[in-house]
Amino acid sequence: MNGSLPDHHNWPQPGLLYSEAVRELHATIENDWDSVKQSACQTAAGRALWKHVVHDPLAELFAGETHLNNFYEKIKKDLLNNAREVSGVILAVRTLWFESKLEAAVNSFGGGAQVVLLGAGMDARAYRLECLKESDVYEIDFPEVMQMKDTLLQAAMESINEASQLTLTAKSLRRVAADMRDEDWFKKLRESGFIPEKNTIWILEGIIYYLPHSQAMGVLKTIADNCRITQTVLLADFMNKQSTSLSATNFHFYSDWPDHLLPSLGFSDVKLSQIGDPDADYGLFHDPHNLFNKLRGLPRSIQNHPDDGTPCRRLYLVQASGSPNQTISRE
């Protein structure tokens, strides 16, 4: 990628080729779901509107017209104002980072592994990533989210335009209806066919900071315990404390030092990146004075920018791994 972005006249618009059944389903989402559940559709909208860098043919279906149009208007406004960061760029970079690290992890396991997407929302990787063709994929989310996802796919099968995108790429896919805030989510995962002794890649993308602290730590500890049994990889993004102030009602859990937290839980190898780092840039930050470069140049311990006093809101992209013969003792 060369870092150039389309202008507001040429930015790819959503197709909006929806059947009446799909429109009715999205009306239910907009009327009945809270903001946390609707964030799954917002994420899909971001992927759909950054389709010049993110290939996700099902994103428009899962986003819905309202979320697509709202996101598109934000992007147009940013481009017209020559914003240093265009709406959705973090989401695009995050998506590309997770998929790059997922592919590398799957390949390190020889192609076959279990992949667990916690808080999967409207993720469609099981339908589009070739690296998952020998992997068993498990998606976990609220029961109503998993049910709606199935229903949207069924409705889309009636459309010739969508049917070709509905072929599963992964070896298998199981949807697990569970609330990660409840202690029985791991039991439900096992009941769906998950094998703790099999090499596993866990994906916590855009989800951990929505959980209260005790529940988030419980999820991380459950995953870390897997390191004692088999080769385990965790891919996750963490907000620092200042970032949670963006939405005090939705964001709860934070870690200023996830690369210290995860080893204390039992992971033996942790690598941390910030948006804009060499492996988390993808040529998408065209303005050298963008927010992320400003933050990367400051020590992570600084909470407010010395130039203007604004909060240093950081998003950390973290890869952690462990195995029975490498697991370190907990502090």
TrEMBL record:
The keyword Transferase applies. One of its GO terms (biological process) is methylation. Transmembrane segments: none annotated. Keywords: Methyltransferase, Transferase. Signal peptide: none annotated. The keyword Methyltransferase applies. It comes from the Eukaryota. GO terms for molecular function: methyltransferase activity. Pfam families: LCM. Belongs to the UPF0677 family. This is S-adenosyl-L-methionine-dependent methyltransferase. It comes from Deinandra increscens subsp. villosa.
